[in-house]
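dude i think i finally got it to work??
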Amino acid sequence: MDVADQARQRDQALLRQQTHREQATPVVRDGIRCCLDCDTAIDKRRLQAYPSAVRCVECQQIHEQQARQRSL
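look at this
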């Protein structure tokens, strides 16, 4: 395993830790779960499909895209 592989593995581990921490602390305002990134209410259908969601669909897509780019 070369240095680049080690760095990639470290970055992926840090991202998993960050994601785990975020999922453990959802943002709730006035009883409504809100997106960590844009602070808008997370759609009820998303929460029904993915109860541990901490981001709205749009912000989650951006988050995943950025994570993929970091892992390259």
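The longest helix spans residues 3-24.
im so relieved honestly
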